[in-house]
Design a protein that fits this description.
Number of domains: 1
Structural class: mainly alpha
Number of helices: 4
Shape: globular
Distance between the termini: 45 Å
Helix content: 25-40%
Number of strands: 0
Strand content: under 5%
Length: about 70
């Protein structure tokens, strides 16, 4: 599950996470883009495994651009 989905699933989770980490709710809002690596294991435990590590990483901004063909190869 993505961290953002977990946060939105129940009112008060943003505040609860902030209190757990000793941060402001505003700081946790910034985590919606990506959770700091130093907090991932503790957040995984806090959510009882509901948020997986992939769900804490930033979303892809779309497919990667295709590689340029090698002009020296026919």
């Amino acid at each position: 599950m993505r961290f953002t989905d977990w946060l939105d699933a129940e009112p008060g989770r943003n505040k609860a996470v902030a209190e757990h980490f000793g941060l402001t709710p505003s700081a946790i809002t910034h985590w919606r883009r990506a959770v700091p690596r130093s907090r991932m294991h503790e957040l995984h435990a806090l959510t009882q495994g509901a948020v997986d590590f992939a769900g804490m990483l930033p979303r892809s901004r779309g497919p990667a651009a295709p590689a340029d063909p090698d002009p020296g190869v026919d």
